[in-house]
Design a protein that fits this description.
By secondary structure, the chain is α+β, with helices and mostly antiparallel strands. It contains 15 helices and eight strands. Among the domains are: 44 residues; 185 residues, Nucleotide cyclase, GGDEF domain (Alpha-Beta Plaits), CATH 3.30.70.1230. Strands 1, 2, 3, 4, 5, 6, 7 and 8 form an eight-stranded mixed beta sheet that branches. Strand 2 and strand 3 form a beta hairpin. The longest helix is centred in the middle third of the chain and has 125 residues.
Length: 544
């Protein structure tokens, strides 16, 4: 029971230490700056994951090989390629394993890494032999023996092992050659017998109904030849079975050698462990239990800390996501209230400085006889109709980046151009105003068809200087002030439904692109008499 408990503790501690080791290596990799450090850490991670997470191991190994290739480090390329071949061997991917072991062999040869070179040749020989390619396996074994002889003999037992493999493969090649020759001879005799049987059958067909002594002899010969054919077929089957048995014997031979070698090492290890146990038996148990207890406590504390860190990290990520989403909503709301340039200044500085613009075109709309029409609607109907019209106006000016919506007041809609565009272009505002009146005309026709009350809009535009800024604290608003705003309002109130009424200053900006109709003068406070014009349509060849 105690041994089981100790084994369980060791397993738990080993798993925790493996996880900790992987995390430690990955943390070092994140901080690594030189290519050689990154290469070695990726190789160590590949070795660590080679049994448990093969795909991850292959990914690290591939990255390490790319760096080693750039550094021209043949030794590391040999090591990395050999590990990749071992991993592909565990995945039973024979072709990729062969390819990687060949890369390991070639790079080991360039780097003078004899041990990696021999191990690669041994792996290649085993794969070839297990797939019936004995001559190929023999060539790898011969190359290994030659390399071992040139490196000063066998210090690790590799020479005797390769020599045994050479004898086994040589014997197999000889047996296979002998069987192949015998098989060719049998096939040749079989073809000759078939020809002779065919000849005898033809002779029988051309004879009379009564058998002559010659025909009887032919029949007897035919029977004997058929028996010989059956005997040859049986001999061929025996030979084929013998060949397959020899192949299985070689495959088993490699496995037996590995088992025997592992068994010898295991016995030596057990003997050494028994001797050490005998010497240290009295105090080893107490030291082991103390170490296990300390390690278990450390592992539990580490596990708790890792778990707490993961939980805290998830909570931080969740809160960060919520904050990002709220910030995004806040930004979107701010952009719905303020121009983008003003919103950015407000976020960066916490306040917006008032600014004067020398040339801005201001547009006002309102609905004729709004109060009288509103009395014929319920509150819900009135709000729905206003919302329908103002949404359409929002959509129309939204097609022009240069136009900025300012506000709505009751049935009045206000927007301007020249506040946020790098280049002033009043033509966009004129186009938008004509589109608004087109919309109101379609809206009117639809309401008339359904025998419902409708709105008719007047639009006025004036161009001049304005001051812009933000006022208020809790429900702050972006607005513009000045005579230009007042005159634009006068242009609207003195206009006509379905028309766009503009001042002389605006007319001078668009006269070459739009057809306009002069309609007299109007008195403006502090400005005297001002000419007014109706915009009719774009000039020929101009986009509306």
């Amino acid at each position: 029971m105690r041994n089981y408990f100790i084994l369980l503790l060791f397993t738990l501690c080993s798993s925790l230490l493996l996880a900790q080791s992987a995390e430690t290596l990955e943390a070092k990799l994140a901080k690594a700056t030189t290519p050689s450090d990154k290469m070695e850490l990726k190789y160590e991670l590949a070795k660590l994951y080679s049994d448990s997470k093969k795909e991850k191991a292959l990914e690290y190994n591939k990255d390490a090989f790319i760096i080693a290739n750039k550094l021209k480090d043949n030794f590391m390329m040999a090591q990395i390629a050999f590990l990749e071949g071992v991993i592909y061997g565990k995945k039973r991917d024979r072709l990729r394993a062969i390819s990687r072991f060949k890369v390991a062999r070639d790079n080991a040869s360039r780097a003078g890494a004899t041990e990696i070179h021999l191990n690669s040749l041994e792996r290649l020989a085993n794969i070839s032999a297990n797939n019936g390619k004995y001559k190929e396996a023999y060539s790898y074994v011969k190359e290994g023996l030659k390399l071992k002889g040139g490196s000063g003999g066998s210090s690790s037992g590799g020479g005797s092992k390769l020599a045994k493999a050479e004898k086994s493969i040589t014997k197999l090649i000889n047996e296979k050659t002998k069987l192949s020759n015998e098989n060719r001879r049998l096939e040749k005799d079989k073809r000759a017998l078939k020809e002779e049987v065919f000849s005898l059958e033809n002779k029988l067909k051309t004879g009379s109904s009564a058998l002559t002594p010659e025909q009887k002899r032919i029949l007897e010969t035919l029977g004997e030849k058929e028996k010989q054919l059956e005997s040859l077929a049986s001999e061929k089957a025996v030979a084929e079975e013998k060949r397959k048995r020899l192949e299985r014997k070689y495959a088993q031979l490699s496995k037996e050698e590995m088992k025997n070698e592992a068994l010898v090492k295991e016995q030596e290890a057990e003997l050494m462990a028994a001797e050490m146990e005998q010497e240290k038996q009295n105090n080893f148990r107490n030291i082991l239990m103390g170490a296990i207890g300390s390690l278990l406590l450390f592992a539990l504390l580490l596990f708790g800390r890792l778990r707490a860190n993961r939980k805290a990290k998830k909570e931080i990520e969740a809160k960060s996501q919520i904050i990002d989403e709220e910030r995004k909503r806040s930004d979107e709301l701010l952009l719905n209230i303020l121009p983008a340039q003003i919103a950015t200044e407000l976020k960066d500085k916490g306040r917006v400085k008032a600014k004067k613009y020398n040339e801005v075109s201001v547009l006002f709309t309102d609905f004729k006889n709004f109060s009288g029409i509103a009395e014929r609607m319920t509150p819900d109907q009135l709000v729905d109709e206003l919302d329908h019209c103002f949404k359409a106006f929002d959509y129309i000016i939204g097609q022009y980046d240069s136009i900025e919506k300012i506000k709505t007041i009751g049935d009045s809609y206000m927007c301007a151009i020249g506040l946020n565009a790098p280049k002033f272009n009043v033509e966009d505002l004129i186009k938008a105003s004509l589109e608004m009146q087109d919309f109101m005309e379609d809206y009117k026709m639809d309401r008339v068809r359904n025998n419902k009350p409708f709105f008719e809009a007047r639009i006025g535009i004036h161009t001049g200087p304005v001051v812009a800024g933000i006022v208020g604290f809790n429900k702050f608003a972006y607005d513009i002030w000045g005579d230009t705003v007042n005159i634009a309002s006068r242009m609207e109130s003195n206009g006509q439904v379905g028309k766009v009424n503009i001042s002389e200053s605006t007319y001078n900006k668009i006269r070459s692109r739009f057809q306009c109709e002069h309609r007299g003068k109007i008195s403006a406070k502090n400005k005297g008499m001002i000419d007014m014009y109706f915009v009719k349509k774009p000039m020929a060849g101009q986009m509306a």
